Amino acid sequence: MKRQWRLGPAVLVILGALALVGTACGDDDAPASGSGEGGALRVAIVAPSASDDLAFSQSMVDSVHAIERDVELSVTDGTFIIEDAAAAIRGYAEDGNDVVIAHGTQFGASLIEIAPAFPDVTFMWGTASDTQGLANVFAYSPAADEGGYVNGSIAAALTKTGVIGVVGPIEAGDAVAYINGFKAGALAGGASEVNVTYTGSFGDVALAAEAAEAHLANDVDVLTGTAQMVVGAVGVAADAGVPWFGTQANQTSLAPSLVVASQVYHWEVVLEEMLTLRDSGVLGGQAFEVNLANGGLVIEFNDAYELPAGVRDAADAMIEGITNGTVSTG
Amino acid sequence: MIKGVLGALVPLLAALVAFAFGAMMLVTLGASPLAGLDAMLDGAFGSGSRIAATAVKATPLILVGAGITIAFRTSVINIGGEGQIIAGALLSTVVALSFPNLPAFILVPLVLLSGAVGGGILGAVPGALKAYASVNEILSTIMLNLVMVQFMNFLLRGPLIDPFELEAGTRIPQTQRLSDNATLPTLLDGTRLHIGVPVAICAAVGAYLILWRTPTGFRLRAVGYSPEAARAAGISVKRNITLAMTLSGSLGGIAGAILVFGSEGQRMVTDGSAAGFTGSAGFNGIVAALFGGLHPLWTIPSAMLFGALLTGATQLQRVLQVPAALAVALNGIIVIFVISSTPVRGWLQRSLANSGMFNRSSDTAGMD
Amino acid sequence: MGEFFTLSVLVATAASAIRLATPYLLASLGETVGQRSGVLNLGVDGVMLLSAFFSYWTVLETGNLWLAVLVGLVVGLVMGFLYGVITVFLNATQGISGIGIFIFGLGLSDLLFRQLVGTPKPVRRLPNVDIPLLSDIPHLGEALFQRNLLTYLAFLLVPVTALLLARTTFGLNIRSVGDNPQAADSLGVSVERTRFVAILIGNSMAGLAGAALVLQLGIFQPNLTQGLGFIAVALVYFGAWRPIGVMGGALLYGFVNATVLQWKALGIIPVSGSDLANMAPAVLTILALIVVARRVHAPSALTKPFTRH
After folding, report:
1. Contact of A62 with A68, CB cutoff 8 Å
2. Which one of A52, A201, A234 has the shortest CB-CB distance to C119?
3. B53 CB near a chain A CB, below 8 Å?
4. What pLDDT, in 10s, does the model give residues C146-179?
5. CA distance linking residue C87 with residue C306, whole number of Å
6. Cβ atoms of residues B349 and C91 within 8 Å
7. What is the Cα–Cα distance from B229 to B222, expressed in whole angstroms?
8. Does A127 sit behind a cis peptide bond, omega within 30 degrees of 0 on the bond before it?
9. Domain A37-143+267-290 part of CATH 3.40.50.1820
10. Which of A97, A151, B10, C33 has the fewest beta carbons under 10 Å from its own?
11. How far apart are the first and last CA of chain C?
């Protein structure tokens, strides 16, 4: 037992001493907000998956880079542990960032506690359509069903068997909006069956691949899907020569000859609006939507995929229709 | 005596070597190792609120770790921490949703108790399966972890979902904001330090007392040391194995309740994975327990250390903008190095030999 | 439901099951060898992630699939060396050193992927190789004998491992070291060396498993395995430390998963039942074990570090 007594306290004492030394010599607190080099805006993003995942998280990072402003950007990605994300959001606010983007629907509950504690910081939260009554929180969401509808109608034009397959993660958030819109568009466009599989995981690539295989066994000849695990399904589609429709980011690089189109989120459209409001003193309290009408959603076609005659025109007309309200996404 | 002090320094040296590896990794990523160390220490201990955050982060580790020590001392390997945490969280959430208007001094203990019950059930099942059906507990606990994740998703997107979500159509897997009466009271204003921390410490102390100061604990340890001898002495091996797993699970369940009612958001929310909610406390707790020599009291500082590693790592990630994966890899290296360092090995071995953990001659021998 | 029972769908489900089972089988067989010698390795998942990343990277850089498989094997070997040193020569507690390796592998593979690759890029996948004659058997041939070479290897390794353990001297050494290391030692068998080699074998197969997983998918992502390694360890217990039992477990797991996916695609499982259906593989595995309950004999020295008396 003696050795135990020496081990525990010894380790703790030494670490405690190191800690005190460390904090004594450590850097002082973070700089005041808005005082980055040359007045650059200090923005931080907290995202649940990798910032280069060709999906949800990447879309936001790309969009911040696309803003036409001087921005000093910090990113914490891969924070799928919700309490850790909350700590990161709080930490970025404490560090003096002007804007903290909580890019994950599941982070909303934490914002209710954090936002009031930092009234000078603008928080942006997505995907969400309600600011939960917080004065310094902007909410943003994609009208993913719109792009889904367009994709679905093009898919219906391409399918020869009439059966289309969808691979989804969990039935929640923008995934379900996209998939419902896709299904509606496809059925309206003449597809006979749209089979949807929710694999139950955002990250299980192998399961997504086999879900795609299962669809193919049922005469599916066009596929789509959403979330970061979808890369597995795209691979299966590519090998089977089946066209793929993407969402959240431009997925052409995953299957250069078979990706037909991707619904790409261009958050910068609403980010600019939010920042303009912030400049005029409104730090939050409004909800924004990216959709086809405001250019926040863009259907990016893959030029390498040859669409049959007339399909592209029909798609453009459909986008027109949704934009001016004549077409409803069901 | 000198040997003793030296013996304590070696694992520290091992930790330092591990940090050296981490420093190398930081350098290749273009970051300064000193800045890295500074960030980690600052993140873990840099201010009162940060120390509080470290303690809060360590809380589930203390609980799971203490539970592990009970199980391991009875010769049962409980890898079901993740599932038991979820089970406790779910049951406590249901209770809070059902009785939101009870006064806080009743509701808070009630939710913690329900957490214990939920986790206890999820410990009892593999325990009973092992005792009465010879199903190996490593298998059943791993499988139950998987089951509980899906069950959590089902409940949080179905019966327990925030009605607001249904209206809005976004269907985020979360409950509504839970009753304020169930919020764990904060102990220190301006920090996140809540009563979950002393509860965890008491639980660990309780585990120690149960194991070494009660006849129940004696029986548990006897079964762990030698099932045959225990049975010969009239002790029911089956019942005690089940009991050990139940106790172990219930401690994990309390951790789950604390995670919900001590959270920023005051609700149970998931992203679909287990670790999104638990933060891998089910696994990290095992490490904390074994670092503490399978002794509930030593699990406390060991879990605090681990908690410091974790909070320090998030600060490291944020300040230096290095990928979070670096911190994960560093944690792994530290675990490997420290557990490989010889005196720890010798001491643990002796301590484990005394626990009888690995003295079984076969999985089912001696089962009635 | 009728649609499920059409031959083409059943065949596709079987093929899917076998594909899914392959990495489980490889990792699990390796773990069986290790456990029979008395060593528990909970770090399989970490080893798989590292070997998966390096295999993927090899194909990305060289385009050579078989080099990638070899790299996966070598990564497993290297990790096995590390684990062997820690476990056999430093006598570290196997439970946590394994989890340490898991955490390390998880973090390092993620880090390397971010730094060296970044955005996921697809690579060539393992091609299906039809076995002559056998693949022409109607339906069954399509399901079983039109798979990739790593799958065939995995299933071939089942009898190979069984024979190794049951009929070779080395296998006898492994078993005796796992059951009664003191006796083995007194008979002149080097416990350390036997366990070390068993660990090398086990981790090399975990390396192959990681390569199989990533090369079947043709792409890597952080945490690609999603806990596969732990399930593989669990399957060893399911299979009662016998290769044929382990194969049964891997196939059960693969079939249940494949069937659930197929039923979802067909709409037999409605979207609302999705979460509950996802529990099926785990629940059925436990049920199967209860139903087939038998007295299993674990290697008696499993997880006990060996010290000479």
Report:
1. no
2. A52
3. yes
4. 889 999 999 999 999 999 999 999 999 999 999 9
5. 10
6. yes
7. 8
8. yes
9. no
10. B10
11. 63
pLDDT of A16 > 60? The answer is no
Tell me what ipTM this predicted complex has.
0.90
Is domain A144-264+295-323 classified as CATH 3.40.50.2300?
Answer: yes
Residue B332 and residue C46: Cβ atoms within 8 Å?
yes
pTM of the model: 0.88
**C257–A58: do the CB atoms touch at under 8 Å?**
no
In this chain, the answer to whether the domains covering A37-143+267-290 and A144-264+295-323 adopt an identical fold is: yes
Bin C212: left if φ > 0, else alpha if -120 < ψ < 50, else beta: alpha
Query: Cβ of C288: how many Cβ atoms within 10 Å?
Result: 16
C283-300 confidence digits (pLDDT tens): 888 888 887 766 677 787
Q: Which helix (H) or strand (E) holds A227?
A: none
Choose the mutation target among C35, C40, C47, C279 for the interface with B, i.e. most B CBs under 10 Å.
C279
Q: C91: closest CA among C201, C181, C189, C30?
A: C181
* Minimal C-alpha gap between A216 and chain C (Å): 9
Please indicate if any CB of chain A lies within 8 Å of the CB of B139. no
CA distance C66 to chain B (A): 28
Q: Average pLDDT, whole number, for chain A?
A: 84
Chain A closest-CA separation from residue C143 CA (Å) = 12
